[in-house]
Amino acid sequence: MGGSLYPDHVIFLGTKIGVLSEGQSAVDFQAALHDAGRAPPKMLIVPDKGVLLSSSLTAGGEVMARCLAEVVGRIPDGSKVIYLSEEDEYELTHWEAEQYRQALDRGSARQTA
Questions:
Q1: Fewer beta carbons within 10 angstroms: which end of the chain, N or C?
Q2: Distance between CA 32 and CA 29 in Å, rounded?
Q3: What pTM was computed for the model?
Q4: Which residues pair with 18 in a beta bridge?
């Protein structure tokens, strides 16, 4: 994956989605991120197997993961895809309205749990 496709992708799944390398385990992937001082992604692609979702993902995040899978699965091979820029991602993650919406999503997850 080359980047974020749409605003809700950024808000609910974060700006990075992990992809395991050939022969790499999820534990090794997470250890490498920890050693580098980086947080694990909320979504981890396991090529030719499936996707792992973080246990911290909210209900909204789970819906966005499914949405992303369906959107990506419909992009024809060889298509030119335009991703959000880092500036776009920054604006979204620091926009007060989106921070409020994320807080609402986290609150609803606690109420249904």
A1: C
A2: 5
A3: 0.75
A4: 44
Per-chain mean pLDDT for the chain: 88
CA 109 distance to own-chain centroid: 17
Phi, psi of 77 (to 5 degrees): -55, 140
SS3 string, 13-78, reads HCCCCEECCCCCCHHHHHHHHHHCCCCCCCEEEECCCEEEECCCCCHHHHHHHHHHHHHHHCCCCC
- The tens digit of pLDDT for each residue in 22-44 reads 999 999 999 999 999 999 999 99
Residue the block writes with tokens 């992708």: 9
Q: Are strands 43-46 and 18-19 parallel, antiparallel or unpaired?
A: parallel
Crossing angle, helix 59-73 and helix 96-112, to 10 degrees? Answer: 110
Q: If you average pLDDT over residues 51-76, what whole number do you get?
A: 93
